[in-house]
Amino acid sequence: MTNPDNNDPHRIRLIRVQSWHDVGKHLRRIVFHSPELADYPFRCNGAPFKLLLPREGQSAPVLPESFEKGRPRWADPADKPYSRTYTVRAFNRQACTFTVDFVLHGDNGPASAFAHHVQTGQTVGITAPRNTRDPMLLPAAEYLLIGDLTAVPAIQSMLEEMAPDARGHVVLLLPEAADLPADFACPPQVAHSVFTGGSEQYSAVIAAARQARPQSEDCYVWIAAEAGLTAPLRELARKEWQLPLGRCVAVPYWRLGEAEEDYHAKRHEFIDGDADEGRPSENH
Fold it and tell me: Where does the FAD-binding FR-type domain lie (predicted)?
């Protein structure tokens, strides 16, 4: 199957593994390459997109035969690839490369299994990035970024975009201290705190976030983690601190014990709660 319109810059693209290396104990950086990336509608590092992985027995993901109201359709539904949401870690239009950081958690999911057993030349599909109208990092005098290991690629991307005199704090929850990427760096006036462990550390992360409350009204709070941590953090920022919608983004990247297909609707319900109050919905 092929894309219905091969000239559409928002078409699905097939890209191939060029190289990879580990940047943390459970974080693997994979670089993909394809000439089709020359006109990819890149927005910014950290932007979400859909990664499409082939089904068992396929050498490449089967592309949709058609689209109905913007949604892809396959002639045989059994051919529909596995779809997972990831963030762009780096993009190089001249070299036609596309870099993604994968959390390694064994073979208990198609994306983690792919990253764990990755080989040069393997083919995957990618969609165009979502939320093309908005930047990841909004201008602010003070920042507070909070996330678990799944959010580290997006947080790193935002840190790299900050002005040298940016102020703020980053709070991370990682499985182990060795999961902090070797190239993790903050501007001089942005501090970072790292907690290690799992859900038993949620209360400590929330307490650290409360201590790191921005002192300026000109602030930007960004939260992305497991749903059980994201929800109380959004409550803290939106209800306790009374931050307006434009100053706080909270996205539950995943939910403990549920695959992305199972959690997709619940994630949209969470995000669309903000949309109902006037903030545009984020499409993950």
Answer: 7-136
DSSP state of 258: B
Domain boundaries, the chain: 4-129, 142-277
Superfamily for domain range 4-129: Translation factors (2.40.30.10)
Distance CA 161, CA 190 (A): 13
For residues 246 and 280, the answer to whether their CB atoms sit within 8 Å is no
* DSSP per-residue letters across 179-214: GS-TT----TEEEEEEEESSGGGHHHHHHHHHHT--
Over residues 88-101, the pLDDT tens digits come to 999 999 999 999 99
Return the structure tokens found at 90: 């780096």
Which pLDDT tens digit goes with each residue over 11-35?
899 999 999 999 999 999 999 999 9
Check: pTM over 0.90? Answer yes or no: no
Range with the poorest average pLDDT among 67-71, 79-83, 138-142, 205-209: 67-71
Amino acid at 206: I
Contacts of 265 (CB under 8 A, 6+ apart): none
Tell me which CATH code domain 142-277 carries. Answer: 3.40.50.80
Residues 6 or more apart whose Cβ sits within 8 Å of residue 127: 10, 12, 49, 50, 52
3-state helix, strand, coil in the chain (%, to 5): 25, 35, 40
What's the maximum distance between 2 C-alpha atoms anywhere in the chain?
A: 55
What's the pLDDT score for residue 259? 58
